[in-house]
Amino acid sequence: HGDRDLPWRRAGDGWAVLVAAMLLRKTTTSQVVKVYGEFLRRYPTPAALVSASVEELRELLKPLGIENQRAQLFKRLAEKLAELGGVPCDRGALKRLPGVGDYAASEVLLVACGRPEPLLDRNMARVLQRVFGVRPSKSRPHTDPEMWALARSLVPQDPELAKEFNFGVLDLARKICTARKPKCGECPLRGVCKYAQNQSGRD
User: E strand or H helix at 80, and its extent?
Assistant: First the structure.
């Protein structure tokens, strides 16, 4: 079920990873695929984007929606990165960048910096809740420190396996372990999943 051909998953450059993370917010993967390559062709570095006009950037981002907000955020991010001289491989420094939270920071560390970090978003949190039967203490599970600790404990220490693991869980969440009507019968984790076992017990 894996989406192995998504271009940002093969990116070795922190800027390319950050661009994908920002583009993927509040839109679909298929929409981002249409914009991502052209975005990096026009703006291969933060410095290239700094010199671009907001109008030009907004036009490129239009298919994704909220293009005004996205364009302004990208400009601020690019300016800060140009000052720093590149994308840092440090969680604290990454989180001080405009628009960068735990997930985007983890994605840069995982994909561009070779660190075994979890990509805990709503989708991964849902899989962990169901498989392990855990109840997060926060209404937004992907912001719960305990969920982050659980996710981190599961990530393989080998950098390449860490990427495979994270992308595998995210693809599983999007295609099989969906928020509504999960396809438990097709899931490779059904034998160990608390949620699937409870469902089968009701049948």
Answer: helix 67-84
> Positive or negative, the Cα torsion across 40, 43, 47, 52?
negative
The per-residue pLDDT for range 38-57, each reduced to its tens digit, is 999 999 999 999 999 999 99
> Other C-beta atoms within 10 Å of 150: how many?
18
Amino acid code (one letter) for 128: L
Picking from 57, 168, 165, the residue whose alpha carbon sits closest to that of residue 177 is 168
Give, as one character, the DSSP assignment of residue 8: G
Helix (H, G, I), strand (E, B) or coil at 134: coil
Half-sphere exposure of 13 (CA within 13 A, CB side): 10
| 49-84 residue pLDDT tens | 999 999 999 999 999 999 999 999 999 999 999 999
Type of residue found at 84 = L
Q: Is the pTM of this model over 0.85?
A: yes
Query: Which of the 8 DSSP states describes residue 44?
Result: S
